[in-house]
Amino acid sequence: MRKIETIKENGFFLPTLKYKELMILEYMDNNPDTTQKELGKAIGAATSMINAYIDEYEMNGYVRREYITSKKVKYHVTPKGLKRKNYLNLTYIQELMDLHKLAKEGVEEFLKRVSKKGFRSILLYGAGEVAEIILNVVRGSDDIDLEIKAIVDDDLEKRGTDILGYPVISKVDIKKYEHDGVLVSSYTFESIIRNHLLQLGYEDDKIIQFFGEWE
Question: Does 1.10.357.10 match the CATH number of domain 7-99?
Fold first, then answer.
């Protein structure tokens, strides 16, 4: 059974009626034996609302109920419902792509500012998702004149690994890499990392804060 993302797992999008419709049709298509209680849990709605949604979808010809017993119901997504689900899926993906483009442009603009400040080769500090996003943006743009040498991290398990081919190193190895500054690529530990760098002798203007104030 394929795992379906629930609305509670999706922390950045409001559960609009169209999104709920997509989630219900997707869930039903993969789990015809589901219950209204399960559907309610999946999309974060009361069972009474789920019943109202299903009534509407059945009236529109998207869903057909099959009564196994007086209490047990099987839900079938009709060909018209599959067409509707595919349409909703495509429009959802398009909106995600638009949001991704907007977010990428924001990261690009920040990195261009870093380059305009005179930084040419930098280290990232924090080998997580933020670092991976920054690396992808740098690699995918011809307008960012920045070379990333390596990624620093304090997690022993990450040492000796790499992210997209860039080595993950310890802070004691920072001096082995010729660079102009360090970009802090961690939201949670940004202030801690900044203090580590100050203790290592870095000046404030060599510490680039992605999340904090930096000009």
Answer: no
Q: In 3-state terms, what secondary structure has residue 84?
A: helix
pTM: 0.69
Q: Is the separation of the CB atoms in 62 and 25 below 8 Å?
A: yes
Give residue for tokens 């804060």.
209
Structure tokens at 193: 């990392």
Q: Which of 84, 77, 171, 87 is nearest to 127 (CA)?
A: 171
* Domain 117-209 grouped into CATH 1.10.8.60: no
Please report, for the chain, the start and end positions of each structural domain, with discontinuous segments joined by +: 7-99, 117-209
The phi, psi pair for 33, rounded to 5°, reads -90, 10
Tokens of 157: 């398990």
What is the rounded CA–CA span in Å between residue 28 and residue 136?
36
Cα–Cα dist 43/65, whole Å: 20
How far is Cα of residue 83 from the mean position of the Cα atoms in its chain?
27
pLDDT tens digits for 13-67? 667 889 899 999 999 999 999 999 999 988 888 988 999 999 999 999 999 999 9
> Per the structure block, which two tokens stand in for 148?
């990333």
- Amino acid identity, residue 214? W
Contacts of 66 (CB under 8 A, 6+ apart): 73, 74, 75, 76
Which of 59, 61, 38, 36 is closest to 49 using CA atoms?
36
3-state DSSP of 111-165: HHHHHHCCCCEEEEECCCHHHHHHHHHHHCCCCCCCEEEEEECCCCCCCCCEECC
